[in-house]
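Protein 1 of 2
SEQ + STRUCT:
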Amino acid sequence: MSNTGLREQAEAWRRADPDPTTAEELARVLAAGDLADLADRFAGNLEFGTAGLRGVLGAGPNRMNRAVVRRTTAGLARYLKAQVPDVASRGVVVGRDGRRMSAEFAEDTACVLAAEGIPALVFSTLAPTPLTAFAALHLEAAAAVMVTASHNPPEYNGYKVYWGNGAQIIPPHDKGIAAAIDAVEPANQVRLLTPAEARQQGLWRELGAEVGEAYLKAILRLRKYARGSDTLSIIYTAMHGVGGVWMERAMKAAGFPRFFPVAEQQQPDGAFPTVRFPNPEEPGAMDLSSAAAEREKAELVLANDPDADRLAVMVRGAEGRLRMLTGNEVGVLLGHYLLTQGTQLVRPYVATTIVSSVQLGQIAQELGAAYDEVLTGFKWIANRALEREQGESLQFVFGYEEALGYTVGRVVRDKDGISAALVFADLAAWCQSRGATVLGYLEEIQRRHGLFVGAQRNFTFKGAEGAQTISRIMEAFRREPPRRVGEHPVQRTKDYKTGEARTGDKVERLTLPPSNVLAYELEGGGRVTLRPSGTEPKIKYYFELKEQLRSGEPMAQARARAEGRLEKLIDAFVALARDRGQPA
């Protein structure tokens, strides 16, 4: 696009922007003549996909703002009216986290829905993402909208959509909604009622305490040991998010009196003053929690991300040191615990993703449970679980993805960091009752089902240029797949975009939907997987190796050997990526 065309497009957007703040912001960019900034803001529309919208706050179609939210909601409402005949009686749940602009975006969402004749079922206070997903099912709503950017940095916000089945949308609904959004008029022409008008017409209905009470009762029933512990000491951080009050209530009801929130991070604050990146996986994010755990000599540290759909766990080993568990280790612990403890399960079923550890599948096979690997993203786990429950009468027990996402049972059809934390505390109390530690239980599982070690490396490339860089890396690997990674020969290559798996000259078709993911299965049971993030400007590399335990070998020795091999694998693959155009 020419500079003149770019400026004309920006002027047209500014005139149609219903928010004076972002209209003025764009006017300043135009006056400064910052064409690079304009080009990024107008590189395209913020893409609506199966995770909804997520982006940096600011003016322009490639940013999160009120103009984008209003047009998105109008498109969603019109699609729902075309697809769900009783949407006007069922309504749409609207929840929001504590980020900057979340209140304004949630209000606009409710007011546009009301103008379209769809009742907005609005949480009157901040709501965790899993509570919003639960409400969609509990209230039998046609859909739900959650205004959140999950664990992204402070400058982000987002808009997540759930279908009436309580799960995030998947094709064809994502494309149908996106097409409906494209057909919506300019933002300043989108009709919306005021909150007062919507309330007066019965189209803005505030949700009372009953929904939250029902959620808490439901997640308390997920526990297996269900006796709590008067002595287990637990540190918890809400990471400046919206999970704090819910975790306190759940832990009190479950019988954990030694539950200590990190005070500096317990209240919602969209500025995230104690962390630059409010993701428990990021360096430094758990520093305050670790310090509190040392002061209290706590055995367990639990952390939610800001919208409380993810869970991170630190545990204290027999030697007294705290260790952060990987997402895969938490998934394996919870999966094994839920499959083996409590009442006998009838046709149990567990699921994970193609970038998570294969160990859950091996455990499921040995315990006689059904198992699936699906594409990355909890939408695929939840929708596949619904499909198999209905078609095969399976009982969904547990699903997880290595990026700290877990769901227990059927209460929430998405990842739920609150119920997962509650059940993990239950697991820890059960271990304590046996005179064991959580790490001791993990070792039991690994000695029986194998020692797997894994790691992830992320590389961030921001803006439109960064997206092009990520695309070039993926296409370079697609054109030139490696025959070996370091000392590991590649036995099989999977390209989920083309739907092909190659083993030598043999080609097989993959059954999963197309996705921009490549995987290399290595001789000896290892795997390397790469994909662009769907919610952040990153390319992600996933690594896993299986280590053979020698007879009588101490676990620490085997783990050290495995992790040494893993680091060599990572270094070799990153070198290959740089050969294929990744910036140093």
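Protein 2 of 2
SEQ + STRUCT:
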Amino acid sequence: MRVDPSAEPRNALEQGNTPEPRNTPHARNTSDPGPDPGLAPLAGPRRLLRAVVSRIPLPLRGLRSRLLISFVLVAMASSLGTGALAFREARTGVLQQSQDSVINRFRASVEAVAPAVPHAPAASDLQWTVNQIIHDNRLSGWRVMATYGDRRAYAPTPRFTQPSPEMLRSVRTRRAAVFQRVNVDGSPRLLVGMPMTYTADEDQVQRLSGVVMYLEVPQTAEEGYVEAMVSGIERATLVALCLAVVLALLAASGVLRPVRALRGATRKMAAGRLDVRLQVTGSDELADLSRSFNETAAELERTVAELRRLEARGRRFVADVSHELRTPLAAMTAVTDVLDQRVEGETGEALRLVSEGTQRLSVLVEDLMEISRFDAGAARLNRDDIDLAESVRRTVASRWRPEEVELRLPAPGELRARVDPRRLDVVTANLVGNALRHGEPPVRVTLRGREDRAVLEVTDNGPGIAEEVLPHIFERFYKASTSRTRSGNGSGDGDSSGLGLAITAENVRLHGGRIHAANHPGGGAVFTVELPLDLDDEGGAE
């Protein structure tokens, strides 16, 4: 007998894909773990992504954290991918080289003893064959088994891992060597099956003799090489991750530096510093953003400066015109008052019309001068500790009849505060006069204390305020008379120039209070003023 020298081992893909031996409890096939089960598609990936992002703490959502995580993930993917590819190729090379070396040595040993093996060997012939192969490779740690039909021979001991049925069938029907990798008690081993052939004298055709030689070789050294490769790949991955973190920090610092500068500049601009500018370096997108910010800031500064200049000119014009009109209007008012008392008939009626117009013009001029003082920041409070109920009572009594205004005030001395008496008089008079012009008497004036505030409410009996008018009710020169029926009753303070409620709101805010307009559920408008009771004395002469 002899071994066919042209017979080569089957390729690793074909030979390694053999199932685990069924009759050996400690042996299993590790050559092919089988395909991994496919991942089921996720339902709603966008919803899942949003849910995952929403669970990330806010500090980790910053640009620095995202850059760092991105660099680390890229480095991990690159390192693991490269490491896995290198490990696969190196492992395949190590195992292939070891496998080829073992198979070639085993083939040479079998060929050396094959001529001495008879065509129908007895058990002693098989035992001599395996003993001779072990003797020739006594330092290799081999285990050899020879089979012929039901006969078996083992060396150096009968302990041999049983090949799988598939391997047994394959090696009996093929002339090529067949191998299988198994794991026995956690130790990797290589099983090789090699048939002996003989050549018939009549036709010189090689035929299978029925004798099959099996070899079991431990692969501890190869496993050590693989573990060393894994350790090296792990160290390389760790170095790559550290390098990625350093690069991510450097990149984040370079990216975030102009972003932080932009954030600081916007905060300064929000605080009123419109002259702030960014230093532009480079030609990337961040540099373009900085240039755009500088151009926007410059244009905004120019626009705001122009608006301020026009506003200052407008305030100065109003103040100058009001001041110039004050003196001649005072003289005209005095003359018309004298003539009203002396002239009768049609001329007297004309004079009364002139007198009323002059008075309205005088009130408008006074309101314009008051508004100009608010705009210029020249309005000051002359505070005094007064009885709020007594102040409201005097304001109403000096302007309207008792049947026109219903007072609901606390007892004398019960509600006191440090306020400007003149400005409180203006607030009360404007609100009551506005309520009488747009509603039916009596107007209800209610004053009460609420915690640390005094609350003044003025309620009329008119049609209320239209919803579209409410947001503009305290704007200057805004008139809501088209939406509220004018009764013509009342002759108190509060003009129809559109400045009365605006001046009222300015006076309330000057005191640190709040004013609010709404519609009463029972009908009519309600103006509510809240004034703090514990103000510090900030007053001074106007």
